[in-house]
Design goal:
Shape: elongated
Oligomer: single chain
Distance between the termini: 24 Å
Largest sheet: none
Structural class: mainly alpha
Radius of gyration: 16 Å
Number of helices: 4
Helix content: over 70%
Number of strands: 0
Order of helices and strands: HHHH
């Protein structure tokens, strides 16, 4: 249980950093480049996925024995694409249907996707607690 709590804390720290990348880029693209909020959210989400993969597989999850890095990355991306779908549906619904400011909607969407990310990555990618599995 202690390891799970520590893992969730590391996931949270990586998530905060990824959120800064995601949210900051989304606001910059929307406000400075004049992009549609759903388009800018898609671009920023994608950029944060790359950062998140590197940080998550280094600091949060352990490499699963017998799984190639290529397969690991493919699964990570597939789970992230599903997360992007959740993100975009929530962004569209919140901004277009509900008329809520995109910056507020993004915070809620991030919380939902964060839970999706941890649970699915824990199940699909984490190699457990055996020593020597920490990705480098």
């Amino acid at each position: 249980m202690r390891e799970l709590i520590a893992q969730v804390a590391r996931f949270g720290a990586v998530g905060v950093a990824a959120f800064v990348v995601d949210y900051g880029l989304m606001v910059a693209l929307t406000e400075l480049a004049g992009m549609d909020p759903v388009v800018s959210a898609t671009i920023s989400f994608t950029a944060s996925v790359v950062f998140n993969y590197v940080a998550s597989m280094r600091y949060v999850f352990r490499h699963r024995q017998g799984m190639s890095r290529r397969r690991e990355f493919a699964i990570f991306v597939a789970l992230s694409v599903a997360g992007l779908g959740i993100n975009d549906v929530l962004m569209w619904g919140g901004t277009t249907l509900a008329g809520i400011d995109y910056r507020i909607v993004k915070i809620g969407a991030t919380a939902v996707v964060m839970v999706w990310n941890f649970v699915t990555r824990k199940v699909m990618l984490d190699g457990g607690s055996s020593a020597g599995n920490r990705a480098v």
